[in-house]
Amino acid sequence: MHCNSLNNNHTNILSSSKKTQLFRKNQTIYSEKEKINNIFIILDGFVESSSSKKCSQKKITLQKGSSLGLIDTILDRPYSRNMCAKSTVSLAVIDKDFLKDILFNNSFSSVLIKSLVIDIDNKYPHTWS
Questions:
Q1: Which residues have CB under 8 Å from 104's CB, separation 6+?
Q2: What is the pLDDT of residue 55?
Q3: Most C-beta atoms within 10 A of its C-beta, which of 6, 36, 115, 118?
Q4: Which tens digits make up the pLDDT trace of 85-108?
């Protein structure tokens, strides 16, 4: 049985990019309905996630290790949440097309991943981005 994981080329590209971005306290990282170009991973600091939807006034504080924009990328939609730095924040930046290539290069895993994300999004609407 073949396990579909990152191949050496993907691992090398991801680790060699080392693209990071720094945001100051109260600076907007992205706003809902913006077109997705990147997925972010919090390396340091705190990010507040919020939505302007009336049914979801919930604000969530995210910290080191959290991803921003991953579910929206997998569901092929614009950003669904507002992300704002609540402290000085360092983010790893991953190009959405690179990530989609890794996640969806196998049709079975592509369907499985998308199905799991749809389940999460349906169970916790307006929570994750």
A1: 110, 113
A2: 56
A3: 36
A4: 999 999 999 998 887 887 778 777
CA distance 29 to 7: 30
At 54-64, the pLDDT tens digits run: 655 688 999 99
Looking at residue 4, its pLDDT comes to 41
Phi and psi for 119 in degrees, rounded to 5? -60, -45
Helix (H) or strand (E) holding 36: none
Handedness of CA 116, 122, 128, 129 (dihedral sign): positive
Where do the domains of the chain lie? 12-123
Rg of the chain (C-alpha set) = 15
CA neighbor of 17 nearest in space, from 81, 85, 102? 102
* Structure tokens belonging to residue 17: 């990019």
Cβ-contact 111, 117 below 8 angstroms: no
Please, where are the H alpha helices in the chain? 8-17, 70-74, 96-103, 107-123
C-alpha to C-alpha distance for 111 and 24, rounded to whole angstroms: 38
Q: What is the CATH number of domain 12-123?
A: 2.60.120.10
